[in-house]
Amino acid sequence: MSFTVFLLLIFLFKSDLSKSEAHTRSLILSAVEKATFFLEDKYRDINLDAVLGFRILQALEKWASEHELPSQQAQVKRLVKKLSSLIEKASHSLRQSDPEYFKKFEPILRPDFWMLPHLWNQTDSALAYSTFDSIDCFTEEMSDKCITYLLGTWRENDKSCIVTDACRNIMTMSGCSDYSLSHQLFYFMIADIKGCSDHLFLRAQYYKNIFCASMMKINLMIESNGFRFSSRDLFMENIMFCGMSGFSDFFKPSWLETILTWQKAEEGCFGKPNEDFEHSSRVKDQEQLLRRVKRREKVFAGNYNENIQILDFP
């Protein structure tokens, strides 16, 4: 959920949304506000992914200072104030309920860890994988450990930016798909932010170019298949990660319009389709969900699945 909210924010932040497009910005802000109100009632139940999403959402304050429309600035500032309080409450709740897990990934929950892109690039379709070999190139535990090696939280008071041979191999493995592919990109994103100096990261942009070209190919396939429910989470995650990596062609106006239709008007969440969703599509989606990577997710009452997929850690 907060992942979806941040995705809307980064559409808002994208420079192509000119000041003349006040209506579009208003629609996005309205969707962000509704989702924030929904999560305000659920902060005790949200997982680490959601707390991370809220932390990144504090970039709203920067957006407010860079735009001239007073009414929208006031709306954003109200949201930032609400989010700041909510982040602290949710972080405290998570720290109490799962202290060991929280400690491993606490660095990425700090307010100054994440940043939005300042330079924009375009994906090159020629760099995308011609075929995808596997959706499960490595296990959750392996991904978890590689991230904590970068963060320096794999052991008490140990150094960060460690790159083991195993991590080097799995995080540069070619042909990965779906969430394994986004884990690979996420790994290089964290290394960039941490300023890791291992020679592997001298080729960080090379790998990002390949990963995001392949993720664009996947998103186009998801679009051509009619945005099945089980694919929407991956679709949005690809936009967010590659958007944060500076690939502007993920911010397609038609994709934004589609994502906005997924929000439930009254509840404010981006949940499951209505019960009259086609039975055949539902069966296929359930089969795909069973094959997906297991995650720490929470399902709220009323079919509001938090289903965020920012980290995918066990």
TrEMBL record:
Q: Which InterPro entries does the record cross-reference, listed alphabetically?
A: DUF4735
**One GO location term (cellular component):** cytosol
Q: Which domain of life is it from?
A: Eukaryota
Q: Which UniProt keywords apply?
A: Signal
**Keyword flag Transit peptide:** no
Signal peptide residue numbers:
1-22
Q: Is Plastid set as a keyword in this record? A: no
Please state what the protein is called.
Chromosome 16 open reading frame 89
Whose protein is this, by species?
Pelusios castaneus (West African mud turtle)
